[in-house]
Amino acid sequence: MASTTTSAPATNGLSPKMTLYTNHSCPWAHRAHITLKELDLPYEEVIIDLDSPRDEWYLKVNPRGLVPSISFSNGILDSEIITESAVVSQFLADAFPSHLLPASHSSPTAALTRARIAFFVDAYFTKVNGKMFEAMRCTAEEEKVAKVDEFVAAMEKEIEPLLKDAAPFFGGSEKMTLAECLTAPFVLRTHAHARAGLIHPSLLAKLDKLPHYTKWQEVVTSQESVTYIWDEENIMERTKARMAKVMANLKPTK
Known about the structure:
The protein is of the alpha+beta class. 32% of the residues are buried. The protein has helices at 27-39, 56-61, 85-95, 110-136, 141-159, 178-195, 202-207, 211-220, 224-227, 232-248; strands spanning 2-5, 17-22, 44-47, 69-73, 80-83. A hairpin with a 6-residue loop joins β4 and β5 (80-83). It has a five-stranded mixed β-sheet with strand order 1-3-2-4-5, with helices on one face. It has ten helices and five strands; from the N terminus they run ββαβαββαααααααα. Residues 5-12 have low confidence and may be disordered.
């Protein structure tokens, strides 16, 4: 276990005290880091070793043993534990209304904006993201290419149309939204996986043919909030080691 503390100023007149239990290699925990950075919130960071059984003290924090988790206090709430990446990010965005997500009743269009962000995130994870992992688990060359084509087709059908008004962020926003906070770790890793040979390298050229997605992802993956904990070389090496174990248990595809 290791810990660090950031000292960014609080927002909305509150001075929250937060402890983020995390691991920088985990894409789910990465969501919380992006959200916290965008909100400029102070927090203490505790690194959880994901390569060994969880310590009893952490299982008391989060019985599932997963990251991220946060402990949140603000003078009214006292050391409340929030777990699961989407829930943590949503909680923070709701607790501190900002460019990420409007408060539900802040304007006549706020509820619609929130619904569209939720739909985008749902589409990415129910229709597209799983196909990336399918593409990573292939062994035969033809299947690798076929799975890449399935991934790109899903991206073109489900995500490309939803980014037509990105300017440069989702929904025409000039700043990051919760849509980016929740999807950016996986967009970042999709391209890194192809560069590292974990997915067939033809993926990159095929994604480049999606103009709305390409413009959006280039902006998103260059944001400081997305990249400040990102160590591509280290994360790709860890991913290669993990996938080697997965592939060793798979039967060769004919």
